[in-house]
Amino acid sequence: ARHQFAYRHAWVALSLPQADLPAIRLAPGVRWLRRRHGPRDGSPLWPWLTQKLAAAGFHGAQRIELHTLPGVLGYAFNPVSFYLVLDAAGQLRAVWVEVSNTFGDHHDYCVHHPDWAPIAARDSFIAPKALHVSPFFQVEGEYRFRFQRGADGRFAVRIAYGRQAGATDFVATQQGWPQPAGAGATWRLVL
Predict the structure, then answer these.
(1) What is the 3-state secondary structure (H, E, C) of 35-77?
(2) CA atoms within a 13 Å half-sphere pointing along the CA-CB vector of 72
(3) What beta strand segments (E) does the chain contain?
(4) 82-97: per-residue pLDDT in tens?
(5) Residues with Cβ < 8 Å from 28, sequence gap 6 or more?
(6) Single pTM value for the model
(7) Nearest in space to 78 (alpha carbons), one of 88, 70, 66, 86
(8) If we measure between CA atoms, which residue out of 123, 77, 126 comes closest to residue 99?
């Protein structure tokens, strides 16, 4: 890579519908707010997303894991959140990708196989770029998504962006694994 950077950060993984609460305090000054996601009106996320999935043709969601950034000291910029859609057997069937930019605009991508087959780590999904998210790239080209979710709760995503089909102009990756919740652990990751 010609240019790259890496950093640690505290993402939260919330299980829906169980943790579909208006707010979750993770540590003093660190909390997750439901109104920053989905319809952005504070309403529950489970019915919103299961209706979106049903409209797209999937009716088998048994659990959804929302992987997202919490707000810190009242400030939250969350460029992307991932809703991992799991069936009754715990298999990943879709990923709802919620993208936001600094202008307050949002766009969602529903990533899945045409037949809603389970998603494997080797699978790649293409979606046209539909939102201005970077001063370096116009709204053109495509994203190529790859996801991996382990039985132990590990999650990884790779997003390659190309201005032309098949090209790669930028790659973003994220990976994480479950950590014990608590104020001290959360602040160590946030700082």
Answers:
(1) HHCCCCCCCCHHHHHHHHHHHHCCCCCCEEEEEECCEECCECC
(2) 15
(3) 12-16, 23-27, 30-33, 63-68, 71-72, 80-86, 92-100, 106-111, 125-128, 142-149, 155-162, 170-176
(4) 999 999 999 999 999 9
(5) 183
(6) 0.91
(7) 70
(8) 77
